[in-house]
Amino acid sequence: MASGEQHLHLSVRENDKEKLGELLGAGVDINCLFYGWTPLQVAIQEGNEDIGVFVIEKGCDYNFHDRHSVTPFEDAVNRNLSKIVGALISKGAKPNEPLSTGNLAVCVAAEKSYKELLQTLINGGASVNSVNNEGATPLYIASKEGHSELIQTLLNARANVNMPCEKGEQHTPLIAATAAEQFDVVKLLLKNNCDINAPDKDGWLHYGMPMGTMMKKV
Prior knowledge:
Blueprint: H1 4-13, H2 17-25, H3 39-46, H4 49-57, H5 72-78, H6 82-90, H7 105-112, H8 115-123, H9 138-145, H10 148-156, H11 173-179, H12 183-191, H13 211-217
Helix pairs in contact: 1-2, 1-3, 3-4, 4-6, 6-8, 7-8, 7-9, 9-10, 9-11, 11-12
């Protein structure tokens, strides 16, 4: 016969909030482990955001790490589950703490073009001018990757349009976008008054591309 804990985990997997509520009301532990996973972790793995938010609001332990030292917050960020991320932040998860990889949640959102997640993190207090373990800001990453739809979100949150990557060649977002031929991003950065004369650490501007040529392209 299946235990209450097994039934609880099954209700999470089946996205059955009513059954889950009944089991919790009957006293089944909201943090019970089944094959090493908590109900919250299962909800995140299954992508069941409503269930995940439900167990968070019921007071589950949101700091429980899996065997890879990944928190539910980090797992939800990587899976682009913005509702769960927002709920975790509201309960005390810290959006500016480095993930197990040394990366930052806002940088993951910028790299993968998770627009809703990025806004959720910003609303939750994530710093748009923080740098990851590679010295890059979210704006630098989004500029390099060509995610123009995220650029304005970051700039609206007061991202420093001229802040260079702290490591390597110390390229600015403008230099990174130009080098990658992301001309929609270049145009947006120019409209937001980026410094066209900010060089990299060797004094180079835009990889030698004449500004007139670049302006014609954008």
